[in-house]
Specification:
- The protein is mainly α.
- It contains three helices and no strands.
- The longest helix is centred in the middle third of the chain and has 112 residues.
- The protein is rod-shaped.
């Protein structure tokens, strides 16, 4: 059987305390009504006794005893109501503490998830950056081959196929495809990508070339 959350258990006790207070308050109100009725009868009996009605004395004594007992019961109910209020306040404070601790734990777990997301995202960026860096290095190698091996014709091809498309690749994303910064209020995070190749790299596109665009014999 699943364990009931502590905060929920305390909240149920709060409902019980509030319900008990309601019952006690109703008893006190009913008793106060009875006391008012007895006070009215007592005033009438006092007048009768003062007028010389001897029979009113015994009835008045009995009624005043009932009134004293009722007032003691009222005092007891008031104390019980005060205790119920104190219990409710203490339980509410406990719920607030438990809820706060639960919220702190939720925030801690969310923070850890965001840190893991940041690490994974940066790892992905670094992986893409390595690939893009090498890809630009390969483009630079091809550009040199075209310029050195085919002169003016090669330079014209470089301009058309390499220089123009790579002059501002973000322009097409931003102006044509309408890409936007995910958080406009923050400075966009960006960095320059250099054309580099790793040690021992061999051009996979022109593999076997002798450096002037012609295959080795």
């Amino acid at each position: 059987m699943a364990t009931k959350p502590a905060a929920l258990d305390v909240q149920e006790k709060m409902v019980e305390a509030r319900t008990r207070r309601g019952h006690l308050e109703k008893q006190r109100i009913d008793l106060q009504g009875e006391l008012q009725d007895m006070e009215q009868r007592a005033r009438a009996l006092r007048k009768q006794f003062a007028s010389g009605d001897a029979t009113a004395e015994a009835a008045l004594d009995h009624l005043e005893k009932r009134m004293r007992d009722a007032r003691r019961r009222e005092d007891g109910l008031t104390e019980l109501i005060s205790e119920a209020d104190s219990t409710f306040i203490a339980l509410k404070r406990e719920v607030d503490e438990l809820t706060g601790a639960r919220e702190q734990e939720r925030r801690r777990q969310e923070f850890n998830r965001k840190c893991a997301d940041a690490t994974a995202a940066v790892d992905h960026v670094c992986s893409l950056h390595r690939a893009l860096t090498q890809a630009l290095g390969e483009v630079s190698f091809i550009e040199r081959e075209l310029r050195d091996g085919w002169g003016i014709q090669g330079a014209q091809v470089v301009e058309k196929l390499i220089t123009i498309p790579l002059v501002n690749p973000a322009y097409e994303l931003m102006e044509i495809e309408k890409w936007r910064a995910p958080v406009p209020s923050l400075r966009a995070r960006s960095f320059e990508v250099f054309a580099l190749v790793p040690p021992g790299w061999k051009n996979p596109v022109l593999n076997g070339s002798n450096g002037n665009g012609k295959a080795k014999s």
